Amino acid sequence: MVAAVVVLAVAATIDALRPEGGRAPPQSARPSVTLPVDEDAVTARLLARYGVSGALYLTVRTGPGCEYRVYPLPRLGIMSSGPL
Asked: Is-above-0.85 flag for pTM?
């Protein structure tokens, strides 16, 4: 019984995410106006709400090389960066 419910849920999810006939929706169905969203501010609020803390370390490709960046959580402002 549980397996049948899981299979139906997966099938419904795939069907909902798939565009009709595999084609993009007509131009008129797409939104014509998008509002700017400060995604960093939204992410920082979510991280703070769930009590996420610490530091996020990552590397970013910049031109011929890479750069490391350190972001304090939940604030997300660059704390440190430099070339690798």
From this structure: no
